[in-house]
Amino acid sequence: xxxxxxxxxxxxxxxxxxxxxxxxxxxxxxxxxxxxxxxxxxxxxxxxxxxxxxxxxxxxxxxxxxxxxxxxxxxxxxxxxxxxxxxxxxxxxxxxxxxxxxxxxxxxxxxxxxxxxxxxxxxxxxxxxxxxxxxxxxxxxxxxxxxxxxxxxxxxxxxxxxxxxxxxxxxxxxxxxxxxxxxxxxxxxxxxxxxxxxxxxxxxxxxxxxxxxxxxxxxxxxxxxxxxxxxxxxxxxxxxxxxxxxxxxxxxxxxxxxxxxxxxxxxxxxxxxxxxxxxxxxxxxxxxxxxxxxxxxxxxxxxxxxxxxxxxxxxxxxxxxxxxxxxxxxxxxxxxxxxxxxxxxxxxxxxxxxxxxxxxxxxxxxxxxxxxxxxxxxxxxxxxxxxxxxxxxxxxxxxxxxxxxxxxxxxxxxxxxxxxxxxxxxxxxxxxxxxxxxxxxxxxxxxxxxxxxxxxxxxxxxx
Length: 463
Prior knowledge:
CAND1/CAND2; Cullin-associated and neddylation-dissociated 2 (Putative)
């Protein structure tokens, strides 16, 4: 009766428009409740499992019923072994071929969950299928990630070599999403036995293609967790070797190295604080626009510029933003501002980041900002006074409006710095804002006040 009450809301969740749709997380919560009921009534568990299998097999069943049944099978299997059932394996693999992404994802979670309490039965099956089913590889790797994440180091220990070998067989996959999943599995597996696996991960940097190196570096990112872990001291000793990939010839390897560095700076700044002297020159180098990475492509009668260096520049500026919060004492702020200044003239995404950085620096290092103020005002003014070409699409107007508002927030932060009025260029810009109704309106809106003058004494929202 209790089981029926739990699943009943889901059997009507696909009712006509106007009814409430259940949140996806509620499916996982109910699945855990069903697993708890099965554990509390082991004599009823076989019947429950059989009913869930039939629910998944029923092609006429609503999608919500099949998704819930799959998630329940995974949670029941996570808490108690379901045994090696050919029927169950077949049902899961068949669900992998569904046209519904929700059903495929639920099947992936289910297979991983069932393997947690039945490693010897299900893990070899998952590893075999990863190689045998290339079209289902991503889903099977997701199942493997579930296993690695949920199992203890001791239970994984007998299987380390077979998992490690399989992952490195697929670390050069052309599909980036699959490579990232391989990397996440490698990182989480390394956490299970860091003393043995971290040196092997480092060794892999010396072999393989750029794709393999990018997978290894991304794997390191997944070993940097936001809480103390046994791997921390080992990682501190060797993270410098992984960060040498910031000098890699391949631009994508450099990009993922920056992403990994950003993760370290955010989660465990102590890992990288002592390396800033050697890392920062490489980081700043990646903030520059490289004309050799900009190409023109023809789209019908139009020519369109494609900047292949944009993603790596964005990653570099994201690192700079993180360092402001975690490692300010290790930065030469004037040198840092040189690169912020260049970012103020870059692509939309980078300008949005540098406006935030500038506002933050106005609060953290006002003296340094005052020294660079005349050079910083011009790109801010250019953004605030820019006009969108007539006939542009709605999105262009929206992007320009957001740029102007973000730039004006940076201006408001600068105007709050004591003695800012001594800068002639800043004083002129403040007067221009006062005298222009459009800019004055934007300034007042970002201040969160109605009316009021523009000047250093004006209150501001620094959030």
